[in-house]
Design brief:
Layout (H helix, E strand, L loop, with lengths): L2 H18 L17 E7 L6 H14 L13 E12 L2 E11 L5 E11 L13 H25 L6
Parallel strand pairs: 1-2
Antiparallel strand pairs: 2-3, 3-4
Length: about 160
Amino acid sequence: MNGFTFLRGALLAALATGLAACQTAGGTGSFSGAGVPVAVETLEGAPEGMSARVQQAVTTQASARNIEVVPPQSDPRFRLRGYLTAYANDDGTALTFVWDVFDSSRKRAQRVTTTTQTSRRAGEEPWAAISDADINNAAGKSMDGVAAFLAAARGNGAETAP
């Protein structure tokens, strides 16, 4: 087992455990994902030195939105696969989260994409321009999108949102 696989597994387990234990009322987003079990299968793209900070931000922001994260080996209604990228653009540096939401039959039910812009530039390495506040902001926006989808799915009882 390589170091990345071990780290990814450990971080996903910590994310699932932390979120399952942190169900509070009243998230910071407009929607609540409460009552719809989801498993975070992957979250890729952050450099090794930032992965733990990104995982912590996602954990905190999901918890604030009452997203019920369960272990991947359980029987969740939805599964999340996340991708994260930082890139330079004309306005500075952007941080984009993409979450693919898969239903219980493992068909993609929704794609949630959010981008957060910072005016800071970092030359050749865009991640150097990304602060913890940027990570938290981007994770919050991405979890708003996931929670909105989960609220719609919970409300209509269907596997996919309208």
